[in-house]
Amino acid sequence: MSSASSVLPFLADKGKAVDYCRQPVSMGCQLTWNLSHNGHVTHTYSDWLDGDSLITMLLKIILCVIIALLLRRFVNRMITRITLRMAEGTMSERIRERTRTIFDGSPVLVSERRRQRAETMGSVLRSIASIIILGTAAITVLGYMGLDLTPFLASASIIGVAVAFGAQNLVKDFLTGIFMLLEDQYGVGDVIDVGGAKGTVEAVTLRTTRLRDVNGVVWYVPNGEIKRVGNESQNWARVVLDVPVEYDVDLDKVRTILADTATAMAVDPPWDEDIIEDPTVWGVQALSGEAVVVRVVCKTAPGRQAEAARELRERVKKAFDSAGLNVATFKQDTSAA
């Protein structure tokens, strides 16, 4: 590569790079001199771009921030891609048979559960990656600004002990979140009841769980505040329909109507995909002077019990109208199981 002095000889200066660069001479300043052989250009580079100049510091900070943002984006995309592959991956036939249990109902439910857990883990891993990458970038920027981090790092343990007393709830939230993920108590897409709030889980982090109730209200629940949790969409769900009829009605006729109605619904699309087992009429659930309560149940896919229950009530109402039966008024007996 020809230097600037060979192209424009009148711009060449005599001397060496040491005459125009800071001591010790950096590789960048030496390269600038070798290419230009111009004292003014070399001296300008040394003043503005070499050493600990303000522009150098700003360039380092900007470069550090850009690298951190690009790395964060790359890591988040990799996590998303891996979790999607985990969620959409197919199971071998051997694994399908091994995972088929009376609690899971079918391998389809296992795959759905794997998808929910993969999304939850992806959300948490992205949060952890962002904290690590951006935190490292922040410490690096502080070092470029000339702040001595040695006393800060040395006193980190002391500060950590002091903060721990004031952030016990935060530590509790993190520990609860970790165990919740390891035990797979619930995940994104599950319908849960945590006591004070009930709804569909939209996001899970190590500190909080965000869920949206049926009215559209978003609840942010600290993980450490969750004493108990009821998961209504893990593995499978169940429709439980109690039908009160008049006391003197023919119970065999009622059982037949309920069984036929529920069975017909179980084979009609799209309900044939939601109802995973044949419906069953359990029989008389409660008695009173005004009515007899007959219970019919059917097992459904996770999160589909509410829609199936509404459809079943409508069909039972039409079947009773066709048979000339009336739904009686019944006062609920709290002692009934």
Please mark out the parts with pLDDT under 50 across 5 or more consecutive residues, or reply none: 1-10, 90-105
Task: Please outline the major beta sheet.
Answer: 5 strands, antiparallel
Structural class: alpha+beta
The ordered H/E elements are HHHHHHHHHEEEEEEHHEEH
The count of strands amounts to 8
Head-to-tail CA distance between termini = 91 Å
Outline type:
elongated
The helical percent reads 40-55%
Please give the order of strands in the largest beta sheet. 4-3-2-1-5
C-alpha Rg, in Å? Answer: 34 Å
In round numbers, the mean pLDDT is 77
State the helix count: 12
Strand content: 5-15%
3D structure, described in words:
With 337 residues, the protein is α+β, with helices and mostly antiparallel strands. 52% of the residues lie in helices and 15% in strands. The strands form 2 sheets. A 5-stranded antiparallel beta sheet has the order 4-3-2-1-5. Strand 1 (191-193) and strand 2 (198-204) form a beta hairpin. The longest helix is centred in the middle third of the chain and has 38 residues, at 107-144. The termini are far apart. The model is unreliable at 1-10 and 90-105 (pLDDT under 50).
